[in-house]
Design brief:
CATH topology of the largest domain in chain A: Alpha-Beta Plaits
Order of helices and strands of chain B: HEHEHEHEHEHEHEEHHEHH
Number of helices of chain A: 5
Oligomer: heterodimer
CATH architecture of the largest domain in chain A: 2-Layer Sandwich
Structural class of chain B: alpha/beta
Number of domains of chain A: 2
Number of strands of chain B: 9
Strand content of chain A: 35-45%
Radius of gyration of chain A: 17 Å
Shape of chain B: globular
Radius of gyration of chain B: 19 Å
Helix content of chain A: 10-25%
CATH superfamily of the largest domain in chain A: Aspartate carbamoyltransferase regulatory subunit, N-terminal domain
Order of helices and strands of chain A: EHEHEEHEEEHEEEH
Number of helices of chain B: 11
CATH architecture of the largest domain in chain B: 3-Layer(aba) Sandwich
CATH class of the largest domain in chain B: Alpha Beta
CATH topology of the largest domain in chain B: Rossmann fold
Structural class of chain A: alpha+beta
CATH superfamily of the largest domain in chain B: Aspartate/ornithine carbamoyltransferase
């Protein structure tokens, strides 16, 4: 386990100063603008990279001019893929990802919720065919709202709100 | 029955601007009425008009086999599809869940794959929302949704609109009231979806609070531009109504029977309420009925639900013919 959790009760509002809580990483990904309290969920969504030897830094509940409070995750040595960024949007729709190489940001990726989700969410309606015939029926959801985030089940039309999506993935 | 069926040759409702040309019906799945345009519905109704009246022997579908697979009870939908198929010369095979491998736990997936191999078209009713869509995705032969859970019942909605058109001469410009179990009655929701294809003057949606549409259905109706108002008392709107669409409380769909007991008998179409209706207004009901529709309503001039049920045969004849593509539809 290489995870390092750094917290400070009196985080200052400036992003510059909060980012100094954790040292810069030479290579890897910095995931910013995660809703406060969601950093661990983000890690789970990335497949818990710390379990594969990657060094992680979590900054939680720091002040943000845009979000009030936010979390930040740094993963050293791992470049988050575009597909992972899309999935990130499901629990952190405002997240931005900076890809870092040799201490320089070489790419910025914003979390954009995928238009279609296959096999990721489960319908919450107990009478939906995707629930009752789970073994043979796929789970397919269509994006039905970005802010707040909503997905609609292809088969029964049930909509999942951001909270339900987050709780299923978190 | 005092309902007079208007001769539609003289009272043809105008179709959409693009008419009926280019409408592709053959081989099409019928999952939701939302999948059909106004011109397509107009084309279907015009075809169904041809089957009104004394039946003549037909061979349009003589080489076809229609499979009915009803995983839930049905009288009108199953029998009118069967009658329609037989009147067109088709053969019908019926999957009875009580006497098939469904009792052994066979999945919808495998059942559909079997029906696909044994028939040219599948009419399916299932208690799960989305079942017909899933079956249609699996099957290479067309699937007609005979009702999936509390979601869609497209051929019922087509029949209901066809009935309005036959009895009132038009659909546009009328005031509709949909009274009953709007939460679980798929026929009520499908009827409202069907109305989005037309231009009703106003639609009143009336039900006890606990039986109102789920928020996503209300949202969808708004997105589709339907002009409607939600009311809680039928007496507020009966005087302005041209077509009253009534449904029973769907006891079988309540997750908790205590909730059913709370709303049981909470609305009823009495003769006193009917007396407040405007002249010429009609009452539709997909049937079966419960206490909301007393038998003494049957003898009133407004009672149109038996005619509605009987029109299911010509409407479904037209539907089968269009989807299977046999003969002149």
């Amino acid at each position: 386990m290489g995870a390092t959790v750094v917290t400070r009760k009196t985080a200052k509002p400036s992003d510059d100063k909060t980012t100094m809580l954790v040292r810069k990483i030479p290579d890897g990904s910095v995931i910013d603008h995660i809703a406060a309290g969601k950093a661990l969920s983000v890690l789970r969504l990335l497949g818990n990279p710390q379990e594969n030897g990657f060094t992680i830094a979590l900054v939680m509940n720091v002040s943000s001019s845009k979000m009030g409070r936010k979390d930040i995750v740094k993963v050293e040595g791992l470049e988050v893929s575009q597909e992972q960024v899309q999935r990130l949007a499901l629990i952190a729709p405002r997240a931005s990802v900076n890809i870092v190489r040799s201490y320089r940001v070489v790419a910025k990726r914003n979390a954009v919720p995928p238009r279609i989700l296959r096999g990721i969410l489960s319908c919450t309606s107990p009478t939906c065919v995707s629930v009752r015939e789970r073994e043979s029926a796929p789970s397919i959801f269509f994006l039905s709202g970005r802010s707040p985030l909503r997905y609609r089940c292809k088969y029964c039309g049930t909509e999942l709100a951001e909270k339900e999506i987050s709780s299923q993935l978190g | 029955m005092t309902i007079r069926i208007i001769n539609m040759r003289r009272n043809e409702e105008p179709l959409g601007a693009d008419g009926v040309s280019g409408v592709a019906w053959k081989g099409r799945d019928v999952i939701s009425i939302l999948d059909f345009s106004r011109p397509e519905l107009g084309s279907l109704f015009a075809a169904a008009d041809e089957f009104i009246g004394p039946p003549r022997p037909r061979k349009d579908l003589a080489d076809r086999i229609v499979a009915t697979a009803f995983f839930e009870p049905s009288t009108r939908t199953r029998l009118s599809f069967t009658t329609a198929a037989l009147r067109l010369g088709a053969k019908v095979i019926d999957l009875s869940p009580d006497f098939s491998s469904i009792l052994k736990g066979e999945s919808l997936h495998d059942t559909t794959m079997m029906l696909e191999g044994y028939s040219d078209l599948i009419v399916m009713r299932h208690p799960s929302e989305g079942a017909a869509l899933l079956a249609a995705e699996l099957s290479s032969v067309p699937v007609i949704n005979g009702g999936d859970g509390s979601q869609h019942h497209p051929s019922q909605a087509m029949l209901d609109l066809f009935t309005v058109r036959r009895l009132k001469g038009r659909i546009d410009g009328l005031t509709f009231t949909v009274l009953g179990d709007n939460r679980y009655a798929r026929s009520a929701t499908s009827f409202l979806y069907g109305l989005t294809k037309f231009k009703p003057k106003m639609v009143y949606v009336v039900s006890p609070e606990s039986l109102r549409h789920r928020p996503e259905i209300t949202k969808k109706l708004k997105e589709l531009g339907l002009r409607f108002e939600i009311r809680s008392d039928i007496e507020q709107v009966i005087g302005a109504t041209d077509v009253l669409y009534l449904t029973r409380i769907q006891k079988e769909r309540f997750p908790d029977l205590d909730d059913y007991e709370k709303v049981k008998g909470s609305y009823k179409l009495t003769k006193e309420v009917l007396a407040k209706g405007r002249g010429g207004f009609i009452v539709l009901h997909p049937l079966p009925r419960s206490t909301e529709l007393p038998y003494d309503v049957d003898s009133t001039k407004s009672a149109a639900y038996m005619t509605q049920a009987h029109l299911g045969v010509p409407l479904r004849m037209a539907l089968l013919l269009k989807v299977l593509g046999g003969g002149k539809a």
